[in-house]
UniProtKB/TrEMBL annotation:
Protein name: DUF1996 domain-containing protein
Highest rank taxon of the organism: Bacteria
Pfam families according to UniProt: DUF1996
Cited InterPro entries: DUF1996
DUF1996 domain location: 16-211
Length: 255
């Protein structure tokens, strides 16, 4: 799914999945592609009515913390989510953003319900002592398939961040109190856990041209110390039902 690289510079310190209705609730700045209206005050109705940077009228919102060059001065040096919360530096624009949906290796997938909300990764990994929700993936374009939870030094290669979302759904809920328990990751071998159903697997890969030798860091909650293991991403499915049906058909035919 082509959604651009946030040429519109849609940035805010909100989190419409985790902290709806609370402006600056993230305490760090997120970068968005897709739905052009996504912010703390978003509702299902407002998201469905808004334009999108994605092709095929996919109005979903996809977002993650910004990456900054920490030896520069940010546009938000004196703002919430920026310097006031310890996130100093110049926001680095993505070179590439890949939004990819994949099927299940063991069965057909069902359509995602509209307005399904998900988070992947643990934005509090540092204070949570690097628990099971950590899913940060950092890598370099010249070493495909190799990822770490630490900041990589890629030289002239592209710095990559990867996000894999859960692809098993409980069949009933579009959200949960933790924003996690209504979905699950597949078991070893690809099958879904009991009482869950396979849905398309979403993977986001974001690439950056980090100037060699320049220090960089992601935004985080102040107490998380900009730890790379805190990397995370969020998603709200606002695809028209016809588009989701078409996507599922292609994925199942490709099995």
């Amino acid at each position: 799914m082509r959604c651009g690289t946030n040429e519109e510079r849609h940035l805010n310190a909100d989190n419409p999945v985790v902290s709806p209705g609370i402006p600056f609730g993230a305490h760090h700045t997120h970068e968005y592609v897709g739905n052009e209206s996504a912010d703390a005050m978003s509702t299902n109705i407002s998201l469905a009515a808004a334009p999108s940077t994605c092709e095929k009228d996919d109005r979903s919102t996809y977002y993650w913390p910004v990456l900054r060059l920490t030896d520069g001065t940010g546009h938000d040096a004196h703002a919430e989510g920026g310097g006031l919360h310890g996130n100093v530096g110049e926001v680095l624009k993505p070179k590439s953003v890949e939004i990819r949906y994949e099927g299940s290796p063991v069965s057909n997938v069902l359509p995602m319900p509209r307005f399904l909300r998900m988070i992947t990764g643990d934005p509090m990994a540092f204070t949570n002592n690097y628990g099971p929700n950590v899913r940060a993936q950092w890598g370099c374009s010249d070493q495909p398939g190799r990822f770490t939870t630490r900041y990589p030094l890629c030289g002239n290669a592209t710095t990559l961040r990867g996000y894999d979302f859960a692809s098993c759904w409980d069949g009933n809920n579009t959200d949960s109190a933790s924003h996690r328990t209504h979905v699950a990751f597949p078991l070893v071998g690809g099958a879904c856990p009991p009482r869950t159903f396979p849905i398309p697997r979403l993977r986001i890969t974001v690439g950056y041209d980090v100037p060699p030798g320049r220090p960089f860091a992601i935004d985080s909650f102040p107490e998380e110390m900009r730890d790379p293991a805190t990397d995370h991403a969020m998603f709200i499915n606002v695809m028209p039902e016809a588009l989701m049906k078409e996507l599922v058909g292609h994925l199942n035919e490709a099995r």
